[in-house]
Amino acid sequence: MNFDKNNLLEPIVKTTPKNVQEANEALFRATMNLPKAAKHCGMTQKEMKLTFWEFLKYNEPDYELPSP
User: Fold this and answer.
1) What range defines the domain where residue 47 resides?
2) 15, 30, 33, 37: which has the fewest Cβ within 10 Å?
């Protein structure tokens, strides 16, 4: 059996502000889960959690809850 080691490793993703913004918005809208968002940004899951908490702290909700 011959294996190509390059096909076994995932490519390294560079963390950019655009990738982080896309991941934060996807987490907010629940279109991406945390592991997928972290991989999209090239971050660890812990780093993504901390970044998302900062995103929530400085961005107001853009929806209204129905009144009871």
Assistant:
1) 14-57
2) 30
